[in-house]
Design a protein that fits this description.
Blueprint (H helix, E strand, L loop, with lengths): L4 E5 L7 E4 L14 E7 L5 E6 L1 E4 L4 E4 L11 E11 L2 E5 L5 E6 L4
Length: 109
């Protein structure tokens, strides 16, 4: 995963947050038969929202979270973000060693 800080304006829907999910050793997470989610929380770790991701490369771990622009980017602030991949009977949270920062900035029109 190359993103540590993602920036977007309030109520915007683009760009999507697109990442390649990887294990700590850099190998791709195989997303076959999985359901990945993007989860965002307030800075005090209280949940803000979660939404399903679109898998854009199953074997390469590539996913996109496509913003709705109302519930997810509707509040200005700095948030924590992570991806959760669910398979039958197990789950993995990525990145596993830190949180992503999501900055939602005020839009002036």
């Amino acid at each position: 995963m190359a993103i540590d800080v993602f920036k977007i304006k309030k109520n915007d829907k683009n760009p999507p947050i697109a990442v390649a999910l990887q294990y700590n050793d850099g190998t791709a997470v195989d997303l076959t038969d999985s359901t990945p989610y993007f989860i965002m929380a307030h800075r005090d770790y209280t949940p803000y929202f979660s939404g399903a991701c679109v898998i854009t490369g199953s074997a390469t771990g590539q996913v996109e979270y496509r913003w709705t622009g109302t519930t997810d980017t509707g509040s200005v602030g700095i948030f924590w973000g992570e991806f959760e991949v669910n398979w039958t009977g197990s789950k993995m949270t990525l990145p596993s060693d830190h949180n992503l920062q999501i900055h939602v900035y005020e839009d002036y029109n």
